[in-house]
Amino acid sequence: MHMLIGLIAALTILPPAPITLQVDENTFEIYARNINYSNYFRLYDLAEALSIDPADLDRTQLNGRTISGHRYYRISEVADQIDARLHWVGGRRTILVDTHGIYSPAEPVFTMQPIPAHILDIIRHQSFSNYANAPFDYSFLTYLTVTHIDFSGQRRLGHMIVAAEIGQEVLDIFQEIYEYGFPTYRMRLIDFYGSQDYLSMADNNSVAFNFRYIAGTNRLSRHAFGMAIDINPLQNPYYRNGVIWPVAGYSYLDRNYVRPGMIVPGDVVYRAFTSRGWTWGGRWRSPRDYHHFERR
Predict the structure, then answer these.
(1) How many CB atoms lie within 10 A of CB 106?
(2) 122: helix, coil or strand?
(3) Residues 270 and 212 placed together within one structural domain of the fold
(4) Which of 76, 98, 120 is the last residue of a domain?
(5) What is the C-alpha to C-alpha distance for residues 265 and 294, in angstroms, rounded to an integer?
(6) Which domain holds residue 94?
(7) Are residues 89 and 117 in the same domain?
(8) Hey, which residues does 238 pair with through a beta bridge?
(9) 29 FRET partner, CA 20 to 30 A, in 62, 152, 215, 216?
């Protein structure tokens, strides 16, 4: 009995508080219960915001809590099950949700727009946190929505930030790749990985803008200008002096054994980029950067 009383006393439940969920361009304000300093949401509120069917979730793998007759769950656990990623901004009162793994658009979408306000909230704290030292401002960049085929053959929506001057060119490239049916595993902003290249690569994520320096130098990468794109890093790893990124891509150093998602000379990805003046890192002597294309 004393142990039970201690457990109850240790469970801190705060009154409901509004949290903003920014799901792509859609905004939802839903109430969360803060339990032991973690936000829990009613499952049906999350289902409505994320456009998912609660029956598709394995609730045995969710750490639920019952409060006033309602079942509450942590959004991070739900996100893990549906292959979404989260980013907290605004003093953790707003949660940005990347829904790449959730939606399969009925028709292909290829659009370009100025960077939306909710995306600016992310990049100014992550991939563009050093913007004060950049030789350009946000208007130099553009936000792309791109349809691609994943490895199961499903249409997926991806997002990418590139230099505005090449935005339409990049849309044309990815539309060409999409129409051919070349698979791209996923396409998320690197900010959902804390702007860490190695985490993005380990998740086989295709990405463009990241304001950073070339490793071991004081020179800005072409990614810093939104003028470089990495595609399927697992199937197309980086290799230099025995170092492989991501390490799970080791078997793909055999470029003669061509498997889905690999980029090889003359294929649709290679042609789509190089015919428009892009350079492929797979042609470099050292390093060999098979996932990397850049524009000068």
Answers:
(1) 7
(2) helix
(3) yes
(4) 98
(5) 16
(6) 2-98
(7) no
(8) 245, 289
(9) 62
H or E segment to which residue 5 belongs: helix 2-10
> What confidence tens digit (pLDDT) does each residue in 33-88 have?
888 878 899 988 998 888 888 888 888 888 888 888 888 999 889 988 888 888 88
Question: Which among 77, 98, 119 is the end of a domain?
Answer: 98
Q: How far is CA 228 from CA 140, 167, 172, 242, in A?
A: 14, 12, 15, 24
- The count of structural domains within the chain is 2
Does 115 lie in the same domain as 94? Answer: no
State how far the Cα of 230 lies from the Cα of 209, in Å rounded to an integer: 10
Quick check: pTM over 0.70?
A: yes
- The arithmetic mean of pLDDT across residues 11-24, rounded, is 80
Four-CA torsion 273, 277, 282, 288, nearest 10 degrees: -130
Angle between helices 75-82 and 43-50 (to 10 degrees): 40
Q: Are residues 6 and 47 in the same domain?
A: yes
- Do residues 201 and 234 lie in contact, with contact meaning Cβ atoms separated by under 8 Å? yes
207 & 128 share domain: yes
Which tokens sit at 213? Answer: 């320096």
- For position 98, what pLDDT does the model report? 85
Same domain, 242 and 217: yes
Q: What digits encode the pLDDT tens for the residues 169-220?
A: 999 999 999 999 999 999 999 999 999 999 999 999 999 999 998 877 889 9
| Per-residue model confidence (pLDDT) at position 82 | 86
For residues 173 and 82, state if they share a domain.
no
In this structure, the answer to whether residues 90 and 177 fall within a common structural domain is no
Residue 69, token pair as written in the block = 């007759």
